[in-house]
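Possible regression after last week's pipeline update?

I re-ran a chain I had predicted before the update to compare outputs. Posting the input and the new output here so someone can diff against the archived version. Not blocking, just want to make sure nothing changed silently.
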Amino acid sequence: MPSSPFVEAIRAKIGHDLLLLPSATVMLFDDQHRLLLVEDANTGYWITVGGAVDPDEPPADAAVRECWEELGLLVAPTRLIGVFGGPHFRSNYANGDTVSYVATVFEVRRVGGEPKPDGVEITNMRYVSREEAKTLKMSVATREMVDYAFDFDGTPYVSKPTWQPPK
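New output (post-update):
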């Protein structure tokens, strides 16, 4: 996972300990309602386009920036699909860093650019149908977001709260 100067500064203070990070995720469908997924260079897992939100950066800007950085594709957010987080959104990286993401997921439309994997974070890309997505190697968190995106009816995802006040 490439780091921003902000994350690097925090890591210098806390080491590899758990870090909570906001992130933005892009869901881009083509005309045949196939979803754009990319192959992560480090894990070989199929993932959504996205990444960490920088300090003072609106999540929608982070979604647009990440799509440009990873694929050279300019997009515009059109709808909020939902906000995802929880135990499945924790990642343990090869360097020992642990991160728990809270992902703001946007449906986007293509504005410009010709998509091409950056070769650093992303090695491959493809549009997939719901059936094809089911066969790809991906994390539980990615699968949760992808499944919801295919089922999206205009109602943003909000997890059912489980927290209760102390008795």
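Follow-up from reviewer: compared with the archived run. The first strand starts at residue 18 and ends at 28. Marking as no regression found.
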